[in-house]
Design brief:
The chain is α/β, with parallel strands linked by helices. It has 19 helices and 12 strands. It has 3 domains: about 150 residues, Beta Polymerase, domain 2; about 150 residues, NAD(P)-binding Rossmann-like Domain (Rossmann fold); about 120 residues.
Length: about 450
Amino acid sequence: MNLHLVGVNHKSAPVEVRERLAIPEWKLEEATRRLLEYTGIRECVVFSTCNRVEFVVSTEGGVALDGFIGEYLQTDVSQIRDHIYEYRGDEVVRHVFRVAASLDSMIVGEPQILGQVKQAYNIGKAVGSVQSNLDALLSRALSVAKRVRTETAIGSSAVSVASVAVELAKKIFGSLQGRNVYLVGAGKMSELAARHLRSHGADTIFVSNRTHERAQQMAESVSGSAIHFDRLYETADQADIVITSTGAPHAIFRREHGEMFMHRRKNRPMFFIDIAVPRDVDAAMSQVDGIFVYDIDDLQQVVEANVSDRGREAERAELLIEEEVVRFRRRIQSLDAVPTIVALQNRVEQIRQAEVERLRAKLGNLSPEQQSAIDNLTRSIVNKIVHPSISALKSVSGSEQLIATAELLRNLFGIEDESVRRNGTSSVGKRDKNPASGENKQSSSEDNRESEVTQKATSRR
């Protein structure tokens, strides 16, 4: 399994870099398809949130993703090289597990990332970019995330980017009682923010979205008022606080808008909390007297105050992640030998059946009991002969010795490469995009999953 991950997140890159790479939700499917078409990519999945953009691929060999990032996102990778991180092999497994479990989030323990990982997983399944390798990785990542939440208290008193934005608003005004709030964008983040705002006493909530029906639905849920998006600039000055989270590719609030709002408000302060990536509010807005702008990176200070008591639970979760990385590696290593084991079993079974048929021709008519006795005897002999070879393969599974051991056994038993291909791989250690049906089914434990694969392989004889 050749795994490779390239990305940026809130730790490695400021928002002005992340927004250059951000892929809006409606383009995730297209981005995944385009990445799958890139030379050398067998499987891929794309994560894109307000805090990260990551490309996870399973490759046939070494693949440099700079070319894809430059072409698809139309950005000069050399300018942001210092902000990009890369992982391979076990590092990819560990990172994906940590992301799904929200250990790599700006707000450790926040629940939204799990849904975003599921979304990327489902998109990959739908477009055919998630097959055997990434299916195993992502399905296990979701299970690990659930285990972390079950076995640690990392998600207790859960906060989100939206709730932290509301906390910031409270710090600014002291209280939200009697304050008017304008939500621009009716996505999940805005919906969460609306609920928090109403629970903290916000007086009037306006909601505006490009799809007005969605704005109406959200406004009804928080007893607010829906505003048509084409009236945004003529109505936004009615709000003391604007929380914006749209999928717009460029800023929708610029300096000239801020100057217009201040004129109408007679210089009464107005606060913008921008939780969108790319940003909805141009940085120049903060240069207007009376306008105060906070972007998602500014929320970090509030985050630290909210999650400072989660350190111990995070440490427990990290130990759990390390345990899961080891278990995942062992499972994958055990699968590396399966195609050769199946080919070996098929080969000796062909020999056994041919010899039994020849014996039956010489002995003439045999009773069912006699035929059963011959089958049982020959199977027992064959299993005893082939067992040491299968054990030898399993003992070197996942190591460099696997290829040499498998090659030796193929030569000894007269197994041609084509027979190995028919059983799920074109070379030792590389599974086909359409693996045996049992390889990716989930069960209650890793041990059950490993034994299921071996049992299915044996039953094909």
